[in-house]
Amino acid sequence: MTILKEDSPKSFLEIERAGSVYRPVEERLADWHEVEQRLDRETIHRQTARCINCGIPYCHGSGCPFGNRIPDFNRAVRTGDLRLAWDILSETSPFPEFTSRICPALCEASCSAGPEFGAVTIRQIEKTIVETAFERGWVEPDAPRRIGRRVAVIGSGPAGLAAAQSLNRRGYTVTVFEKEKRPGGLLRYGIPEFKLEKRVIDRRLHLMRESGIEFVCSTRVGIDVSPDYLLRKNDALVVATGTPTPRDLDIPGRGLKGIHFALELLGGQNRYLGGEIAAPPVSAKGKRVVIIGGGDTGSDCLGTALRQGALSVLQIEIMPKPPVDRSPSTPWPQWPYMLRTSSSHLEGGDRRWSLLSKRFLGGEKSGAVEGIEVYPVQWSFDDRGKPLRFVPKNDDPEIISCDLVLLALGFLKPDPQALESEFRLQGRENVFYCGDAATGPSLVVRAAAGGLDAAEKLDSFFRSGK
Ligand SMILES: Cc1cc2nc3c(=O)[nH]c(=O)nc-3n(C[C@H](O)[C@H](O)[C@H](O)COP(=O)(O)OP(=O)(O)OC[C@H]3O[C@@H](n4cnc5c(N)ncnc54)[C@H](O)[C@@H]3O)c2cc1C
Questions:
Q1: Most buried of 234, 259, 285, 368, CB within 10 angstroms?
Q2: Ligand 1 test: best mutation among 186, 247, 263, 446, most atoms within 8 Å of CB?
Q3: Does 296 sit in the ligand 1 pocket, CB within 6 Å?
Q4: What is the pTM for the complete model shown?
């Protein structure tokens, strides 16, 4: 092979990182399609040369929860062997088509080139590999040899799907139970269409069904079917029920109309776009929207509210504004604490930090929210810049006027014992918990890795003769 200039060990110095490319703001606000564009083949080819196959690839070792062999697939793309790249990627990653769209890319945060020169654009390389694989027909249904054991999976988010796919490949006969109308969990009913089009989930589900996995939807385990019954009909259970309880903000005025949890907006909009309901149950159209919570769910609310036609959108946060660059409290290769600006933030709306919400104000007659009373707070930091605690800056309240409040404050970690007793599964050795249900709210990549891990444990359990 010709050694190109880009193949020198200094490529990461000579070629600039290509970041995300989004469709123009005006165009994307007028539809719900994915905002991020695929980088062209030539760009991806050049970008792979920036990977220098470093001695300790943190991207693979500590960054990626799947342990994706990133330097290896980068090299395969570089040499033009996309088939080999697909074989390497699909060996460890169950759903690269999801993660290449919505993963925050822990791998890139731990890339050796990252701190000084900009990380290799691993997520986009992954997207090129997986989409090429689908285009060229390399992603085929599995045809496992059955081993005569049955497993029921409760929940069809990334954790349940990953466990189901892995177990099916190992020969188990798998049935997935889902309380919603369609499988996918938060991939379908949380993450907006403009980040992950639902056709991408359906494409994978089609393959999974063709591979022999059965999906039983609109069925809530514990209500419509008992876990005990499932255990009698199956050899084992996988519980992947996610984190259903959003964190609330119990301050005066919480009962006013027009205050909703983020998922009421996001899930409702996705159900509407999916043709499940006639209109979104919560709409920001013509409203002054305040989102409480400065994280990713809040940013998803922002993009959704803008597309619905909000008059204005403000996202507020009690935490201080993070530093623009990596904080010393999270040195490389850790996931950096720093300011994050999503594609939605680039579309409009405002953000404010260090604001404590004390009270919702509403019209006595209408019973609807009209404002939020907030107070500025002063944060203190440890010597590495980690926020420690806050005190009110002054006693002067500020009233932020609004007609719609969205609470995006995260989700509560399920209590494992409560989950066991809800399903009456105490002390059962053949029940395996995974995903957000086991860890608390996390990421698609971690939930799916948890699903793979549960499948591995379940398989070892039976292999050990139990
Ligand atoms: C708005 C939002 C945006 C997000 N964006 C991103 C992102 O961009 N990138 C990222 O990496 N992560 C993101 N996350 C986090 C990510 O979606 C979750 O970490 C991940 O989906 C958890 O997967 P899971 O399979 O454990 O649970 P879930 O995806 O929550 O799936 C659990 C499933 O179990 C079903 N279920 C629950 N109880 C029962 C029952 N009794 N019977 C039958 N079915 C049941 C539920 O209906 C659900 O379908 C986001 C989260 C939210 C809320």
A1: 259
A2: 186
A3: yes
A4: 0.97
